[in-house]
């Protein structure tokens, strides 16, 4: 699992080019993935939503744009990323550790985390903390990378471990950040393994929605 100091330093270093790099390296697919997440959140109709590991605010801003009636708080432990989120229009932010959030029990109707759970040092403990701040009946959405099944896995791994770090170094000047990305995706629980983690954390009715053949996945569950 991820080293918090490495994650903090890495994202601090690439903050100013993070959004452009994501769009370019995913060929714009990250925009479609977040749009699907927003559709799911809209079906829940939450009054208060917490976006954990909000980073540059991409998902939180998409939710605010499409669902302006929702009270959205973006939380992240990396101040340079939050500074970028503020400049992009996400004014309601909190700098805090996702593993120990300074928030009351049962205080949110929904919690989202996009491409962030994979970067936390203990997935099970993080899910337990997420459940703590969700009210009974609240909903969790996790959007993150995974590995495709079947024939696509081999060429995707070539892209992930060899082509993507090279392209990323040209965009961000930080090849190590994207070498880490491939390693973290390989180790991240996916499919049934993630559903089991959600059940063990006390969440109910977990679901798995593969995106783009399994390159990314959306997991949802009830508190």
Q: Under the CATH scheme, which architecture would be assigned? A: 3-Layer(aba) Sandwich
The largest sheet is: 7 strands, mixed
Number of domains: 1
The spatial strand order of the largest sheet comes to 3-2-1-4-5-7-6
List SSEs in N-to-C order: HHHEHEHEEHEHHHEE
> What helical percentage do the residues reach?
40-55%
Question: Kindly, what is the distance between the CA atoms of the first and last residues, rounded to a whole number of angstroms?
Answer: 24 Å
- Under CATH at level 1, the class stands as Alpha Beta
> What is the overall number of helices?
9
Low-confidence runs: none
Chain-averaged pLDDT: 87
Strand content: 15-25%
Please state the overall shape, judged from the principal axes of the Cα atoms. globular
**CATH homologous superfamily classification:** Vaccinia Virus protein VP39
SS elements, strand count: 7
Q: Using the CA coordinates, give the radius of gyration.
A: 16 Å
How does the helix and strand content classify structurally?
A: alpha/beta
At CATH level 3, the topology is Rossmann fold
General description of the model:
With 223 residues, this protein is an alpha/beta fold. The chain has one domain (4-222): Vaccinia Virus protein VP39 (Rossmann fold, 3-Layer(aba) Sandwich). The chain is 48% helix and 22% strand. The chain contains 9 helices and 7 strands; from the N terminus they run H-H-H-E-H-E-H-E-E-H-E-H-H-H-E-E. It has helices at 4-14, 18-25, 29-44, 58-66, 79-87, 123-133, 153-172, 175-187, 192-200; strands spanning 48-52, 71-76, 93-95, 108-114, 134-145, 204-211, 216-222. It has a 7-stranded mixed β-sheet, with helices on both faces. It is globular.
